[in-house]
Design brief:
Number of helices: 3
Strand order of the largest sheet: 9-10-12-15-14
Distance between the termini: 80 Å
Structural class: mainly beta
Order of helices and strands: HEEEEEEEEEEEEEEEEEHEEEEEEEHEE
CATH superfamily of the largest domain: Immunoglobulins
CATH topology of the largest domain: Immunoglobulin-like
Oligomer: single chain
Largest sheet: 5 strands, antiparallel
CATH architecture of the largest domain: Sandwich
Number of strands: 26
Radius of gyration: 25 Å
């Protein structure tokens, strides 16, 4: 009897360990709302799939709910803790609201992982309800501020700019002076008077030069020979995060931890004072047990500069972060300045400090 109990205990333990030592595929977001899209204007969306198990997982089959959706996905194994992209392209063939599903079968589960996307297909400007707050004369845009936040090397996210032809003639809106890490496609390429089109702006992370913040200004050509000016500029920012090594629970307990004196840097009291510039200094420190490496300290926009006294902070050590804002440039900036800090803190590799610049 004693031997039988021992055998059963070992068998149960083996089954338990076996069940734990397997892959587990999950989606960071399994439901995407694509909003309003144009009829017969294909829309591309990206799901990030993460293996949260302990063994590799392979995507075996992907089945969209209709033939209007085409998918691309990684066929090689996804290692434990790693992620892969599943890219779906939806070609809207009917007007009105829609909800589509994608079944993702993988080697770690008998049941599929279900991904969903939903939205509304519209025909023209009279149906489009998203709004066009950016007035560029002959065209109006849904936005002139594009931000690719928290991307990793190998990601290819897209951002959409909806364009309304506000003139009485057919136009061919084009983006000018795209850097090598950006590409654009136009749907449709020629935009009739009063109609709405879409520009899909794609970020190619392999061409980004460094971790942290990359920002640029591109321009909208409303007609042939259009020139660069503040009237037709679009701001584009991207934040590339470092790929940190995997850590065990013991290593996490010893990892560096970034701490900041404030998460909002308040300049409101200084706004009323005379002078062309505002300046504040705060402290940042390391509450972990290992040296904290600060890879990048940058500011969104062009109205401020930042300096850090030390980029390697010992355990319990501190450094001074000094932010200087130019008042004249601040008036031209569309958004409030933000400070971006990229570190090797595995819990928070990206930290953003907001600057309060509104007068009390």
């Amino acid at each position: 009897m004693k031997y039988l109990q021992t055998f059963l205990l070992l068998a149960a333990l083996t089954l338990s360990l076996g069940s734990q030592a397997q892959g587990r595929l999950e989606a960071e977001t399994d439901v995407l709302n694509v909003g309003e899209i144009l009829y017969q204007s294909p829309r591309t969306l990206t799901y990030k799939l993460v293996n949260r198990g302990t063994e590799p997982v392979t995507i075996t089959t992907v089945i969209p709910s209709c033939g209007c959706t085409q998918v691309k996905y990684q066929t090689s194994p996804i290692s434990a803790g790693e992620s892969a992209e599943l890219i779906a392209t939806y070609d809207a063939r009917t007007l009105g609201t829609f909800q589509k599903e994608i079944e993702v079968y993988n080697s770690a589960a008998a049941e599929p992982l279900y991904l969903t996307f939903q939205g509304r297909v519209v025909a023209d400007a009279s149906d489009y309800g998203g709004g066009f707050p950016v007035d560029m004369g002959s065209v109006k845009l849904s936005t002139a501020d594009i931000e690719f936040a928290d991307v990793n090397m190998g990601d290819h996210p897209e951002a959409n700019i909806m364009v309304l032809n506000n003139s009485r003639q057919t136009l061919r809106p084009q983006l000018m002076h795209l850097p090598t890490y950006l590409s654009a496609s136009y749907h449709p390429e020629q935009l009739a008077a009063g109609r709405v089109g879409r520009i899909a702006l794609r970020l190619n992370t392999e061409r980004l030069m460094a971790y942290g913040l990359t920002q640029t200004t591109i321009n909208m050509a409303r007609s042939l020979g259009d020139k660069v000016s503040e009237d037709n500029q679009i701001d584009v920012t991207a934040v590339l995060l470092p790929k940190l090594p995997k850590r065990t629970a013991e290593e996490m307990a010893q990892a560096p931890i970034l701490v900041c004196e404030y998460d909002t840097i308040d300049f409101s009291n200084q706004m009323q004072k005379k002078g062309k510039k505002l300046k504040r200094t705060i402290t940042v420190g390391n509450a972990g047990a290992q040296v904290l490496n600060i890879y990048s300290v940058q500011v969104y926009g062009h109205s401020a500069t930042v300096k850090l006294s030390n980029r390697k902070i010992a355990p319990d050590g501190k450094a001074r972060l000094t932010l200087t804002i130019d008042k004249a440039r601040l008036q031209k900036q569309k958004t409030e300045p933000r400070v971006l800090i990229i570190t090797d803190d595995p819990r928070h590799p990206k930290t953003t400090l907001v600057c309060k610049v509104v007068e009390n």
